[in-house]
Design a protein that fits this description.
The structure is a homodimer.
Chain A lengths: L1 E7 L13 E6 L2 E5 L5 H7 L7 E5 L11 H10 L6 E5 L3 H8 L10 E5 L4 E6 L2 E8 L5 E10 L5 H6 L7 H5 L4 E3 L2 E3 L9 E9 L6 H6 L5 E5 L8 H6 L5 H11 L4 E4 L12 H7 L3 E2 L4 E4 L5
Parallel strand pairs in A: 3-4, 4-5, 5-6, 12-13, 13-14, 14-15
Antiparallel strand pairs in A: 1-2, 1-16, 2-3, 7-8, 8-9, 9-12, 10-11
Helix pairs in contact in A: 8-9
């Protein structure tokens, strides 16, 4: 299960009533935060979420609306009582840039481990939960993230009893190791079903559409994508500023075959993004903007 | 006239519904901002104030709740169309520290001039408007600010006509220079009345009470002072964290003989500061907390 909170829907500048775009994903007591613009710590409080469990902060790029909230958040995480290490993932030079910002947050009660993105692919994993990245086209190096929660195969308890495997050995087989029962070697394949689909959330902001991103988001359960402008007449502005129209995000969602598209990162010049939702839905029907939290669960299988 | 907006009343961390403490003072089309914590640019928008006219940003000290909003604000001031220089005043190393934070705001359409405070006294002036500072007791170097608007002496037009001074020479006399009329030297003293009291606002936050501050705030029209804790039972905590009780701020206001005391910088643990206002008023009657904007005008004289 993944609990997904979009902490804001703003792009460029924080506004009264519209926090900047940032994503919190919680899973099994841990939390991953993607992007941290000015005010993200206020948005986390407003959403009723905690700070102590934030173990990974991932940054798409180093424009201020995606990172300026970091020193304040790091201090607040410290005040929450965290002492376990915290990992900060980001483009090249992430350590140097965050260290600059930490001129006003030099002392923290937990260590920070930097993980610098050098190429597309996996960047972090902890058990079944993992992060991977894909470069996107923007003014400066910028990456889309995919949060994946792997699902283990199903254990066939009836089969295990039939094979007289003691219950104490079941977890060994579930973990992928073989066991010996009455002189017989039992391999996991004897009691485990086929691989099952996990959950995937793709988060992509500050970009022009591209084939690499479409392939990266393929079949995701949720595609959270920027839609800087709703009005299709702003196409040239979108190209100039390296951002997307709603309909361009919807087109990528349709081609990637995702289950749902959640639009965000709205221009401050667009007070009512919902006015343009019908045009996005004409391209990809399962598009939405009007949620703050979504829970994704494994499908029965 | 000074238009004074307290942009928030929070201390330590920004909260939903409570912006961090920062002060905007506007005078004759220009604006001075004192302190700039995370979210101050949002508070400026929420107050309906502009960005372009901000020509001076003064920092009391370098704790994050007083400076973390700076890179975002500098970018937003740039987006507002400002090209005139902007002065940033602050304790020693202000240039180095702000330059670190500007790792995410490297390109601005206006130059920044740093003015480093090295000792108590005047730090900036532009015509009748000026800033001076006084060191206060905190964890790290921290200064109180006084914004002063000088008032010119009154011009006696009847007297000027009586002396046959042409109207075109009046402004010369008003500026303090002498003029020659029909071979006579007329000095300003001939037509200008006595010096008149200007306006003074003292802003002091993050400190323990002290005699230096009381003298600095003497006779101010408005004393904006931190009151981190309302509950007098938190005295030891106030001493430990180098902050003030409401009653301590009120005591300084009474001893300084200020006209009014505006309390701010409330602890996040104090959701209802107004509950403690009566105790402050018992020490200094003209204490308030429930305003966002105040306009100070010259008294007739």
């Amino acid at each position: 299960m993944l609990d997904i909170n979009l902490l804001g829907t703003g792009g460029m500048v924080p506004l009264p009533g519209r926090f900047l775009t940032a994503l919190m994903i919680r899973c099994r007591g841990a939390a991953i935060l993607i992007d941290c613009g000015e005010g993200t710590q206020v948005a986390i409080r407003a959403a009723g979420l905690g700070f102590k469990q934030i173990g990974v902060i991932a940054l798409t790029h180093f424009h201020a609306d995606h990172i300026a909230g970091l020193p304040g958040l790091l201090l607040t995480i410290g005040n929450s009582g965290r002492t376990e290490p915290l990992t900060i993932v980001g483009p090249q030079y992430v350590g140097q840039i965050v260290d600059c910002l930490r001129v006003i947050a030099p002392q923290l009660p937990y260590p920070i481990e930097y993980r610098e993105i050098m190429s597309d692919g996996p960047v972090w994993a902890d058990g079944p939960l993992s992060l991977s990245v894909q470069a996107v086209e923007h003014w400066i190096p910028c990456y889309a993230y995919k949060v994946s929660l792997a699902r283990s195969a199903k254990f066939n308890a009836d089969k295990a009893r039939e094979l007289n495997i003691p219950v104490r050995s079941w977890s060994v087989l579930q973990s992928g190791a073989a066991v010996e029962v009455d002189g017989r070697i039992i391999n996991p394949g004897a009691v485990m079903g086929p691989a099952r689909k996990g959950l995937e959330v793709c988060y992509a902001t500050d970009l022009r559409p591209g084939e690499g991103l479409v392939r990266f988001a393929e079949n995701a359960d949720l595609f959270i994508c920027e839609g800087m402008y709703g009005d299709p007449e702003l196409y040239e502005k979108a190209v100039e500023h390296r951002h997307c129209l709603f309909t361009e995000a919807a087109d990528m969602a349709a081609r990637a075959g995702v289950s749902a598209l959640w639009l965000t990162h709205f221009s401050p010049s667009m007070p009512d993004p919902e006015n343009y939702l019908p045009q996005a839905r004409a391209v990809f029907a399962n598009t939405f903007i009007d949620q703050t939290g979504v829970t994704l669960r494994f499908q029965d299988a």
